[in-house]
């Protein structure tokens, strides 16, 4: 599924080394990495986002949510090879699903367009994946992570929702509603995303656990949005996240009633490494 080659090995086996791309002084990888950036009227923030992206990335997929500013033009100026995809629906979940479908890389990374994420952290996510994880989940509350952009109410809500997911699905998450994640492309076949809003991150986190995928949390620091205002609404979107949790729990109970072997399946799907 993954390939890692240390620099010394690359010198020893030159025919193989050409297939690998150095991503740090100690690590080279073979899998191509796609970065998906959903954006709507983020022209002012894109210079900060693209500046932090590593140059070894295979492709950048910008999903334009019908921007009325020059978001697309700025993206093409900053990253000439950028793949621009027009979003036909609405919502962050819809934008991400559209972007995932356009990716050609084996590894997919989700990055927000507001400048709150450090693209340099992608190395940590990719390292976790090529080392054996299926899903590398960013966490602002894991040891080494942090956030500059969360009110007390949002922190409380995130904690409550995260606790609910951990208890109901057997996860061990420290953060739930965070959009900086990376995963192997094959994961999409197992989580079957079908939501349109900000609750998409929660749905992904629940379904990777239910699918029995190996998850590794990556400490991440969330910075303040640089320009503009967020479309996130704490109460509205918090209720949508809660609805997803309840629906996924109900679906799990229905599966248990249909299958006599479901307790064993549930135990297997509840493992998070």
Automatic annotation (TrEMBL):
Gene3D superfamilies: Spore Coat Polysaccharide Biosynthesis Protein SpsA, Chain A. Residues 34-156 form the Glycosyltransferase 2-like domain. Residues 253-273 are annotated as: Disordered. It comes from the Bacteria. InterPro entries: Glyco_trans_2-like, Glycosyltransferase_2, Nucleotide-diphossugar_trans. Belongs to the glycosyltransferase 2 family. This is Glycosyltransferase family 2 protein. The lineage of its organism: Bacteria, Bacillati, Actinomycetota, Actinomycetes, Kitasatosporales.
